Each structure stands twice: as structure tokens, then as C-alpha cells.
Amino acid sequence: MIKSVASWSIMIFVVAFMFAMLGGTTVEIFQYKNF
Amino acid sequence: MLRGLAALGVAVPHIILLFGHSVAWEGVSIIAVEIFFALSGYVLAPQVIKLHKYASRYNLWVFFFRRWIRTVTPYVIAVTLIATLTSNLFSSQFLTKVLFLDTFINVPATDFFAISWSLAVEEWYYVTAALLVFTFRKSKLSTIFLAAVTVLFAVKLLGIVFDDNWSVAVRRATIYRLDAIAFGFLMFLWQDRLSPSVAFASLATLASTGLTLLLLWGFKSNAYGLGELFMLLAIYCLSAFSLSVVHLTKLLNRYFSSPAVKRASRFLGAISYPVYLFHLPIAYAVHRLGYGLPATLVFAAGLIVLFAWLFHEQIERHFIDNRPSYATGPDLKAAHDQITPIFRAGFGIAVSAAALLAVSEIASQTYLKSIRPTLAYSLFYEGGELGNRQTKNLFEAIDPILGYAHPKELAYDTKEFGVSIAPGFGVHRPKQGDYLKVYALGGSTSDPYIAVKNNERPWTYHLYTECRKVINCGVWNGAVGGFGSHQELIKLIRDVLPERPDIVVSLHGPNELNRILTSPFTTGYQLTQATKQSEDSQLWFSGWFPNVAGLVALVRDSNERPFAKRDIFMGHRNTLSPFDSWKRNISMMQAVSAVWGARYYTVLQPIVGVGDYGLEKDVFGYTSRNDAYYKNVAEFYALARAHCATIGYCIDVSQIFNGSNEMLYRDIRHPNEAGNKLIAHQVAAELQKKGAFSK
Prior knowledge:
The complex is a heterodimer of chains A (35) and B (695).
Chain A: H1 2-22, H2 28-32
Chain B: H1 2-17, H2 23-53, H3 57-85, H4 92-98, H5 116-135, H6 141-162, H7 166-169, H8 174-189, H9 198-221, H10 227-252, H11 259-287, H12 293-321, H13 332-371, H14 375-381, E1 397-399, E2 403-405, E3 420-422, E4 425-428, E5 436-442, H15 448-453, H16 459-468, E6 473-477, H17 485-496, E7 503-508, H18 524-536, H19 546-556, H20 578-595, E8 599-604, H21 616-620, H22 628-646, E9 650-652, H23 673-689
Parallel strand pairs in B: 5-6, 5-7, 7-8, 8-9
Antiparallel strand pairs in B: 1-2, 3-4, 4-6
Helix pairs in contact in B: 1-2, 1-11, 1-12, 2-5, 2-8, 2-10, 3-5, 3-11, 3-12, 5-8, 6-8, 9-10, 11-12, 13-19, 16-23, 17-20, 20-22
């Protein structure tokens, strides 16, 4: 239980971090690079 | 083990590539993806063989479900996340991407999820392989796959001839790459027959690497004009390389049998897919922190591995554990029972995710509104200087300079009221011939479409019939409800004079009073429109959850304003009275028209409250001319009429309803069609008197 809550918290934190760094703006770097 | 290493082999170069272009690192990630392909075919082979052996419709579906639950569900989660990050949610590319179609034949030039092409190859391989194996269940597996690989070779050859984009698409487009995985399957099938030694496999790996590089060089330099041939061979050589690597790893596996290595392999295998799916956004996010390459590499790789591991443990593992198994015996009912809870779980997850997002969105919006009141609120409701000015949103179309305009298309018929639609104008004109071009400007009294909406012809239609009695003429009516002389001046310069009119007539009246007192070039309507635009863009963010994104941006940077608190600039302020600014505007209109060889006339329209129209009191319940509105109107008209009498280009028709007991008004500012007919008649007579009706 504790393990699962901790895991989800970290995952949500990482997603929030992605949103904080990249969210909202149109991320051109994503748009134009082809891998 | 190899899968995990391959995933990291893609992710790490991608992090490094954020710091600048590097052919070598690009090569590493390309090779890693190729190994993925060979490995997929190899690892999935036992299931394909099972499907072939126990071919039934049920098992075909089990095969699909096993694949889709394992691969598509995490993929959809990743695509949705990245699409949300890049404001691509539910865009057309998002939808084609979810269906693995956007890289099917060609590779898009702009791509918000640049690695999805390889997952599309995988996905279409599953579908194609399963359907082939099921359809040709009587044939030998090797025959089926050799035939498929041959067909795909032919597709590549045809591509060279017919596909202009071939050299760009061939490495990534689905139809060109399905065979990369099929080779992995064939290797599994034939592994007992051809079991090369470690030495041979190492040699093959090295040789194919060298050969691939050589062929790619041949492609780049287009040696002997055979660039495409080199590329074609390089693609196959890459597959050969990947197969050698996969085989070599298998051979070397027995040397790494200690428990620690086995645990590490299991871990790497477990995180491989989420690493592949999520490494790009995490890498970009960490890159944005602005650290150097070593720190970014360590931090990003660590975060990617951590996130992938948690994702695997908390989400992916449940999908894998709950996959249905193949029915190899007669017990189909039990098999069906096994599938039902999977559907239910998937549905539950989707609904809860949607609900969670919806709740966050509403909560974010409420919070954002409470901390940042909107511009409209501070302009119109907080008791500022604007008070409760006209806050109507006039027309559907936005005019970036004039505030608002008529939309290009109208939902109603205007022809039966003598108006045909041209961009910016309602037109009355003869079908042919050389004719006098009359352009009209004005506000709602003249507006052709407002007249039509009231089932009337505009006054300009009657001007047209009057003027045709004298000379062949056409009338272009550019009036827009709410326009005052300052907007007409600009419309004259922008839209009318370039058309080389012979005559310009603008009809003026009460709109001269509807402006912000200290900003003569802004009416309440314009300000409303500007505010509306500001409201529409009150969030920087678009997509389905703009407020969640806005809240996150606010947390990230308190200077980032999720609400557009951009000021509205209404022009340099001055204290010109309505009359003074009207006087300035008409003199400028007259002057610029003259420069362009047009004759300009301003017309003062009749209005309730000025003059002595017979039905004024009875019809409109008009009680006191001492109201502030009527006082302002009377003041403006007194000054304007006096000025009008002193200039040659003014036509004063404000008094023509005097003494009439006929119904001539629609409301206190707008004459009805009978009134408009009188206005047109009088204006035409005055124009002729002034000698305007001549070429």
C-alpha cells in the first residue's frame, strides 16, 4: 500500500515536472526533430 | 537484457542529441532501434508459431489482445501525455498517431512524438503476421514468411520508382519496414539449422557494421549515381547486423548466469518499453533546466529509468499479468470469462482518468479566476471610468483595425432586398456598362445587412435607384453598425479609395457620441470587441485542459500570466468633443478623397430628439428632451449643423422629417424604409445640385 502510494506520487511528480517544463507552450523542439 | 540495453541505446543518444547534431550518436540510436525490430520478431516467434498450430478465430483475437494490451495501452498513455504537453491533444496527427497511421507510407516532417514510427512498424507487423499465419494456416510458416519478405522487397523496389520521398521514408515508413521484424522471426525458425559459433557471429556483426557504414556512405555521396540502391542494401545490411547481435547475445547469455546479472536483465527487460515511450518528454523537460551535458545526461537518464520502473510496476505489469491465454484445448467458455474482466478494467481506467482530468480542469479554472480577475471585469464592472458602456458584441467577424466587421458569409438571403454581398460591402450595381462608382460609409442606419435583417432595403438601395435616374451608377455600401466617423475614415483609406470611387458619401449621426470621451478613436463597441478577444485568449493555453496547463504554468513561473492582463491601448488621449473630432474626421475624409480624385460628401442623418418630427412624442413615448442622451445629441447636432452650412461637402438632411405625421422611424436612432427613402431622395437631389453625378 505504502509502496504503491509512493510510486504513484513520484510518477505524478514526474508528470507534473514535465508539464511545468514543457506544458502549454508549443514545443517546437518536439515538432521538428525526427528520430 | 538486450531489450533494456537497446532501449537505453535509443534514449541516451537522444539526450545527447539535445545538445547538438552528431552523426555518431544518431547512428547509435538508429542501430538500437534496428536491434529492437530483430529482437521483437525473435521473441514473439513462439506465439506466432502457436497461433499457426492452434489457428482459430478465438486464438487470433487472443493474439491481438495480448499484443494490444501489452503495447497499445502504454502507447496511448504516452501519446496522450505528450500530445497534451505539446497542445496536440485530439489534433488530426494525434488521431492518426493513435491508430499508427501517420507514418504508414510517409514520415511527417513535423512530429510531436518522433519515435512512434517504430512502434507503428511493430504494431502493423503483429497484425500482418497474425492475419497471414491465420489465413494460410495450411501452409508452412517459412513459406509464408519468405513470401511476405519477398513481397516487401518488391514494395521497396516499387517505392524507388514511384515514391518521390523514398529515400526519406524508407528507414521509417511502416510499409517499407515490416520485414525488419519478420527477419527476427525467420531467425528463430531456423535457429537450430543455422547455429553459428560465437566467433562467426562476432565476425558477422563486425562485417555487417562495416558494410552498413560503407553503403550509407555510398548513399550519402550518391556514388555511381546509385544512391538509392546503396540505401536499399544498407537497410538489409542493418537487419543482418541486428540479427547477428541478437544471436551473439543469445550465445553469450550462458556466460552471464549469476543471479545478480539475471536480476539486472529482468529489470532492464521490464523497463525497456516505458523507457522507449517516455524518454523523449523527460529528456526535453530535464534539458530545459539548463544544466550542461553530463548533469543533464545523469539526471535525465536517472529520471527516465525511475519513471519507467514505476510505470512498469504500477501500470504496465497489470496489463501483462492479465492478458488472456491461448485456448489450446476445448475449454472456450473459461477463456471467454478470462477476457471480460480485462475489458471492464480498461473501461474503468479510461473513465476514471477522464473524470480526474475534468475535475482538475474545473478546479483550476475556479482557482485561476479567483486570483486573476478578467480584463472585462476590471474594465466594466469594477466601476472604472467605463462604467456600463455598450458591452454588446456586435458582429461575428473581428476586424484587427476597426474592431469588428460583418462575416464573409451571411446565413440569410440579401438579394431580395436588392443587396448582393461583396467582401466589406453590400452592393447595388448594374450588371454591365461603364458606371459611376458611388461608395457609402456609415453606421447602423446605413448598414445594408441590418436593414435586410429588418426586412427593409437600406437607404443606399434607394440612393442607387435615384442616381440611376440621372446616370448609370452603382453603389457600394461599406457601412457597419456601430461605426463612427473615425472608423469610416480608416475604412475609407483602407477599403474604399483603392477601388477608385467617383463619389464617397458617409452618413453620420448619433454614433459620434458613442465613444470613450478621452479616446476619440475608440467606441464602446470597439472596446468591447477588444476585451472579448482578450477574454478569448485569457489563457495562453489551448487544448482540452487549458486551465490545468495554466495553473501549472503559474506554479512554474509567477511572471507567466495565464490570464491575458494585457492592457488595451485606446490611442493617445485628448479632450476633443464629439463635434470637434467629427469635424476633424470629415475634413480628413474630404482631403484624402480629393487626393485620390473622389468627391466626398458627409450627410447628417435625421434623429429623434432633433427637429420637430410630428410623431416623436406619440410613437416613442419620448417624454423629456432634458435626458442626458438627448442633451448630448442636441448639442452635437447644433454644432454640426452650423458647421455643415459653412462647408461645401456637407448635406444636412436632419430636418427633412419635420412636420411629418407618417411613421418614418424604426426606433429613436434609425429611420425605417419610408424614412430612408426620403433620405435617399433628398441626398440624391443635393448631390445632383452639387454636380456630383458626372464622370
